[in-house]
């Protein structure tokens, strides 16, 4: 399949490479072209415009930063809807607004539009083991499932347009609680004079075990804040979930508290660090 890929960031680069390894013809575009450096050596075509990237693609995938970036990439005169061929499959894998996903589906009637945010971070992107949460028409999901399988292992159809984004909001809400709890546990261990790594060995294989405990708690102990997922993007995701609930006149206290913690870190210059830098709040 001829695939266009837009967004070559921490995760997008690895996802595009996995599609190429699976035998697809892949072209990429990124607003900052320098991030595409080295991809041509892997057999991927680097394009200088969205139009060049998408105009003859059978399927187009996007994973960009914020909802405003999604709107620009899809709805501008130089964007996807203006330049993709009719009948192509178009998949936004950005964590974005459920309302925007529905809007794109309603506007892009000449195409097969899906929302398919992912979870698993840079590790899952590299290993092709992402969880992929898909909203849109079921027959479109079925058609693209073999393509999704080049990037992920847990590929779930949720329902109509916007359902993938709402599921990703559930994912981020759950992460908010677990990563904050992992940070507090590591801070507690240090405060009472325990060795953090010994504590991790003691608790991470029992009821306290989680992906965050296995992958991010050790980084917290080593002050390793290399971003597998940026704080600034996690803030964006949590705000999307918060705003969705506020539109229903409801609030989620754990989400709101963790969002406050991350906004505090961002105000102190840590927005480009990984989410594990939440431990800095306790320092």
Task: List the SSEs and their pairings.
Elements: E1 2-6, H1 12-21, E2 25-29, E3 45-46, H2 50-54, E4 59-62, H3 67-75, H4 80-83, E5 89-92, H5 98-107, E6 112-115, E7 118-119, H6 121-127, E8 130-135, H7 138-148, E9 152-159, H8 163-191, H9 196-203, H10 211-215, H11 217-221, H12 231-246, H13 253-267, H14 279-282
Parallel strand pairs: 1-2, 1-4, 2-3, 4-5, 5-6, 8-9
Antiparallel strand pairs: 7-8
Briefly say what this structure is.
The chain has helices at residues 12-21, 50-54, 67-75, 80-83, 98-107, 121-127, 138-148, 163-191, 196-203, 211-215, 217-221, 231-246, 253-267, 279-282, and strands spanning 2-6, 25-29, 45-46, 59-62, 89-92, 112-115, 118-119, 130-135, 152-159. With 283 residues, the protein is α/β, with parallel strands linked by helices. It is globular, with a radius of gyration of 19 Å.
Characterize the structure shown.
With 283 residues, the chain is α/β, with parallel strands linked by helices. It has 2 domains: 2-161, 3-Layer(aba) Sandwich (Rossmann fold); 166-282, Orthogonal Bundle (N-(1-d-carboxylethyl)-l-norvaline Dehydrogenase, domain 2). It contains 14 helices and 9 strands. The chain has helices at 12-21, 50-54, 67-75, 80-83, 98-107, 121-127, 138-148, 163-191, 196-203, 211-215, 217-221, 231-246, 253-267, 279-282; strands at residues 2-6, 25-29, 45-46, 59-62, 89-92, 112-115, 118-119, 130-135, 152-159. The strands form 2 sheets. Strands 3-2-1-4-5-6 form a 6-stranded parallel sheet. Strands 7-8-9 form a 3-stranded mixed sheet. α1 links the parallel β1 (2-6) and β2. α1 (12-21) packs parallel to α6 (121-127), α8 crosses α12 (231-246) and α12 runs antiparallel to α13. The termini are far apart. 43% of the residues are buried.
């Amino acid at each position: 399949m001829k695939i266009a890929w837009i967004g070559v960031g921490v995760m997008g680069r690895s996802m595009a490479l996995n599609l190429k390894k699976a035998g697809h013809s892949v072209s990429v575009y990124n607003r900052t072209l320098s991030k595409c450096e080295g991809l041509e050596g892997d057999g991927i075509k680097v394009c200088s415009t969205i139009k060049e990237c998408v105009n003859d693609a059978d399927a187009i995938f996007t994973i960009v930063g914020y909802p405003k970036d999604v709107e620009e990439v899809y709805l501008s005169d130089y964007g996807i809807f203006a330049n993709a061929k009719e009948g192509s499959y178009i998949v936004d894998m950005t964590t974005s607004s459920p309302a925007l996903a529905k809007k794109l589906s309603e506007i892009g009637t000449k195409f097969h539009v899906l929302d398919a945010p992912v979870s698993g971070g840079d590790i899952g992107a590299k290993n092709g083991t992402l969880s992929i949460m898909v909203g849109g028409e079921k027959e479109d999901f079925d058609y693209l499932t073999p393509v999704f399988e080049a990037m992920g292992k847990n590929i779930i159809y949720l329902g109509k347009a916007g359902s993938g984004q709402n599921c990703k909001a559930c994912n981020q809400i759950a992460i908010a609680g677990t990563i904050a709890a992992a940070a507090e546990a590591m801070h507690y261990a240090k405060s009472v004079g325990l060795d953090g790594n010994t504590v991790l060995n003691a608790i991470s294989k029992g009821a306290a075990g989680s992906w965050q405990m296995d992958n991010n708690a050790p980084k917290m102990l080593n002050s390793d804040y290399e971003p597998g997922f940026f704080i600034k993007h996690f803030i964006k995701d949590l705000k999307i979930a918060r705003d969705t609930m506020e539109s229903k006149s409801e609030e989620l206290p754990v989400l709101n508290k963790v969002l406050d913690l991350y906004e505090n870190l961002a105000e102190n210059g840590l927005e480009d660090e990984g989410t594990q830098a939440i431990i800095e709040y306790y320092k």
